[in-house]
């Protein structure tokens, strides 16, 4: 039996301890623990990596603390549009959705795309129509409303600016409802199969149906039993240009790098050279995990069958 493990992230960026209240930090740590425990419970009961990453991401999509699912930011038009992807490293099957609305858990819709659509990537109204056909749970607009997110959008809605949700622009006393970015999970199950999932609400005030790296297989999400499972978070445009998730896999496959070495090469060298901030989490088929970022912090957690368990926010 392979060592089984799971790693999660809830966004990376300018996360500064001095600008975080103890109460808010406790909320984030508790939300990360709930997600980590949900995914690990699947693995502990002999479940698959794909079900573990889905369970972990669903927990974060249901939290108002993160920019995914319920906590998603507002677009230029004042809407909540969400993206998600999931990939099975055993089969290389993948499913992704972009620009979907009113979907309670976009990661579940991504899985339905993978399993039952005959396609890999659906977007917009077509993806929503497919969700209804598959019986995916919908929620009204009010479910996704956050006063902080709405006020954040109002400040820049009349401009051509957009805002990365993980950039801190207000002191802690005004951050009660501050939500940080993209969420994701990677896992290795007891059979040595690996999987990855990522979900996001994108950028505040995004225009023209903008899509980031999260739902793009190879850019923000990737899994292959031969190498690794990766979920990214950060400035999506740069991660797309770098084909970041797949690049980690390539470095392992063609240059024989370890998971940690490959993650560091991409995040600390390639992305930095492109002026891209953020990070990623990864696992390999031996249950090893990596959590690497070039920003001031990344909401993250890790747990494995050897008893190792950690939750962290800031850079060490």
Automatic annotation (TrEMBL):
Q: Which domain of life is it from?
A: Bacteria
Q: Where does substrate bind?
A: 210-213, 233-236
Pfam annotation, one family: Asparaginase_2
Checking InterPro entries in the record gives:
Ntn_hydrolases_N, Peptidase_T2
Which terms in the Gene Ontology molecular function aspect does this entry carry? hydrolase activity, acting on carbon-nitrogen (but not peptide) bonds, in linear amides; peptidase activity
> Would the keyword rRNA-binding turn up in this protein's UniProt record?
no
Q: Which portions of this protein are annotated as coiled-coil regions?
A: none
Which range is the signal sequence, renumbered to this chain? none
The protein's site described by Cleavage is found at 181-182
Keywords per UniProt: Autocatalytic cleavage, Hydrolase, Protease
Annotated catalytic residues: 182 (nucleophile)
Q: Which GO terms describe its biological process?
A: proteolysis
Q: What is the protein name given in its UniProt record?
A: Isoaspartyl peptidase
**What organism does this protein naturally occur in?**
Ginsengibacter hankyongi
Phylogenetic classification of the source organism: Bacteria, Pseudomonadati, Bacteroidota, Chitinophagia, Chitinophagales
């Amino acid at each position: 039996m392979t060592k089984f493990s799971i790693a999660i992230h809830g966004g990376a960026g300018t996360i500064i301890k001095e600008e975080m209240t103890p109460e808010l930090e406790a909320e984030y740590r508790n939300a990360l623990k709930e997600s980590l425990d949900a995914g690990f419970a699947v693995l502990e009961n002999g479940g698959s990596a794909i079900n573990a990453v889905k369970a972990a991401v669903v927990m974060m999509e249901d939290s108002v603390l993160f920019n995914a699912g319920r906590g998603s930011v507002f677009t230029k038009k004042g809407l909540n549009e969400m993206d998600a992807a999931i990939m099975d490293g055993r089969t290389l099957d993948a499913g992704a959705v972009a620009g979907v609305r009113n979907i309670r858990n976009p990661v579940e819709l991504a899985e339905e795309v993978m399993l039952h659509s005959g396609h890999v990537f659906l977007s917009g109204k077509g993806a929503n129509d497919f969700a209804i056909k598959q019986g995916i749970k919908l929620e009204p607009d009010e479910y996704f409303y956050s006063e902080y997110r709405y006020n954040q959008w109002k400040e820049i809605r009349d401009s051509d600016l957009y805002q990365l949700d993980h950039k801190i622009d207000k002191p802690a006393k005004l951050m009660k409802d501050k939500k940080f970015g993209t969420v994701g999970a990677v896992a290795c199950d007891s059979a040595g199969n690996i999987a990855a999932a990522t979900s996001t609400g994108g950028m505040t005030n995004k225009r023209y149906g903008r899509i980031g790296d999260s739902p793009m297989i190879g850019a923000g999400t990737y899994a292959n039993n031969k190498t690794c499972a990766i979920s990214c978070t950060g400035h999506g445009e740069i991660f797309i240009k770098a084909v970041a998730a797949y690049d980690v896999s390539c470095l392992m496959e063609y240059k024989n790098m370890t998971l940690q070495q490959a993650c560091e090469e991409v995040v600390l060298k390639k992305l930095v050279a492109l002026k891209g901030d953020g990070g990623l989490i990864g696992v390999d088929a031996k249950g090893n995990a990596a959590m690497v970022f070039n920003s001031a912090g990344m909401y993250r957690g890790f747990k494995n069958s050897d008893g190792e368990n950690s939750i962290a926010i800031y850079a060490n």
